[in-house]
Design a protein that fits this description.
199 residues; six-stranded antiparallel beta sheet; four-stranded antiparallel beta sheet
Length: 199
């Protein structure tokens, strides 16, 4: 059994969390600890109730200390999630005639954090919006929360919703952006944002 455990753990590592303290514990654990959603939610704890996507709340620590917070890019369509950017929480990079900006904010019609990405191309008398893909390393820290993740926004999308509820982080937090990239060029950006107010 001990010789097969590393293969078993490697195969299911993306789905389950494993005990990092006891090497002999081969029990697969869910990556969230919401007591209610662990009974009815899918493997990630999501469940749809009416027209609302209910997400799990980690009410106790799991064995995965450095979990990534999942992101979901929202394609443009007839129903927009409604993004509201936080004051002084935007970073821009320039690639020739292209200027790409990422803004940390929230979904208006929900309680999740989100990141909006926009690229504009400088024209003769005006700026034109351009489609691009983006990635950035985002670290968020408050008095009750600290987490790192990679935010990816594919071409054609403008907003990436973080699987991160606002009440988990609190009303004031710090954010650290590293390695912000756009498909419009090779420039990268980084910036620290302190005392961002959740509005």
């Amino acid at each position: 059994m001990r010789t097969r455990f590393p293969t078993y753990k490697e195969k299911y590592d993306k789905i389950f969390a494993f005990n990092t303290i006891d090497a002999y514990d081969a029990t697969p654990y869910l990556t969230f600890t919401d007591d209610d959603l662990s009974l009815v939610g899918n493997i990630k704890g999501y469940v749809v109730i009416g027209n609302t996507l209910k997400m799990p709340e980690n009410n106790t620590p799991t064995f995965n200390v450095d979990d990534e917070v999942a992101t979901m890019a929202v394609a443009s369509g007839p129903i927009e999630p409604g993004f509201k950017g936080f004051k002084n929480a935007a970073l821009s990079i320039k690639n020739g005639k292209y200027k790409s900006t990422m803004t940390i904010g929230r979904i208006v019609n929900g309680n999740s954090f989100a990141v909006e990405f926009v690229t504009k191309k400088k024209q003769f008398l005006w700026k034109k919006s351009v489609s691009a893909s983006y990635s950035a390393e985002l670290e968020m820290q408050s008095s009750k929360f600290h987490h790192k993740n990679v935010v990816i926004c594919p071409n054609g999308c403008k907003v990436s919703i973080l699987n991160l509820r606002i009440e988990t982080v609190g009303n004031v937090f710090n954010a650290y952006v590293r390695n912000f990239k756009s498909s419009c060029g090779d420039s990268t950006g980084k910036q620290d944002f302190n005392n961002i107010q959740v509005i």
